[in-house]
Amino acid sequence: MDITSYKPIGKLNNKHLLTLKDYTKEEIYEILLLAEKVKKEYKNGIKNNALAGKTLAMIFSKNSTRTRLSFEMGMLQLGGYPMFLNANDMQLGRNEPISDTAKIISRMGIDGIMIRTYDQNDLELLAEHGSIPVINGLTDLYHPCQILADLLTVYERFGRLKGLKLTYIGDGNNMAHSYMIACAKLGMDVNIVCPSEYSPLSSIVEYSKSQGSVTVTENLDKGVTGADVLCTDVFFSMGQAKDPKKEALLMPYQINDAVMKKTGKPETIFLHCLPAHRGEEVTASVIDGPQSFVFDEAENRLHAQKAVLLLLLAT
Ligand code: CP
Ligand code: NVA
Fold this sequence. Notes:
By secondary structure, the protein is α/β, with parallel strands linked by helices. It folds into 2 domains: 3-142 and 300-313, Aspartate/ornithine carbamoyltransferase (Rossmann fold); 144-297, Aspartate/ornithine carbamoyltransferase (Rossmann fold, 3-Layer(aba) Sandwich). The protein has 12 helices and 9 strands. The strands form 2 sheets. Strands 7-6-5-8-9 form a 5-stranded parallel beta sheet. A 4-stranded parallel beta sheet has the order 2-1-3-4, with helices on both faces. Helix 1 (25-43) crosses helix 12, helix 5 packs across helix 6 and helix 6 (174-185) runs parallel beside helix 7 (202-211). The radius of gyration is 19 Å and the shape is globular.
């Protein structure tokens, strides 16, 4: 079943959004269809105060532009209160256990936690020791909120998801992991093109293959031909030191005009979670060109996350 024939039921089985591994295809559709609806209402000036009186604690251990802006504005637009917390200013920055932090936050009348951090285990601990929903705003392993925004962007462009070919080229990182998991579940044909040294984690590849069609290859032509969506991400994620060897191995996988042409489809779209490094993983001609939808993608963080917040916090 594609998203086009799914009938929303207005709820999720999950209490948290830690990884899309925990989500069914139907739950992902649920979020995307609500995102489409809240986006339309917002554009038409229709007010939604469903989160009036609710507070989201937003903990950041890493830099952010989009994640902070979209969660902060998402909460405000839904009548709620976003509480920005820099992890280094908290006692977390002085090694207070995450389990104690979870208990404290849960006792302050806060309704949900969004956290951007390094270790996925820290998220799991927050969820285990706290009593309120926890949302992953990026870890070293996953970036589920970004993938939801990307899927919304793809759905807007193509009017469907199932059967589309999505090819991620570059470092086998948190973005690659989340694309594999989510897109495989939705019946998309997922291709990860990367040098073998920087392949995604094999456990996540195996899991994703159990969910649908996933190919990991070093062969650019094979991965790119027929792709409806081409996407990439930085060579060096936050927390990783620049490494000339890695850069040299990834440079042949840069998305440039020639790679875009290789899809054989003029309607192929380019996506990048941003921030981007023009001249490294993508050329300026592609990211600033007519096939690029990176700013729709960035805006869709707002709408996709408003749907997540409504589904996890409104009740
Ligand atoms: N794509 C993304 O998560 O952007 P930020 O790092 O700016 O939040
Ligand atoms: N892979 C990147 C994504 C940033 C949004 C990182 O983890 O830094």
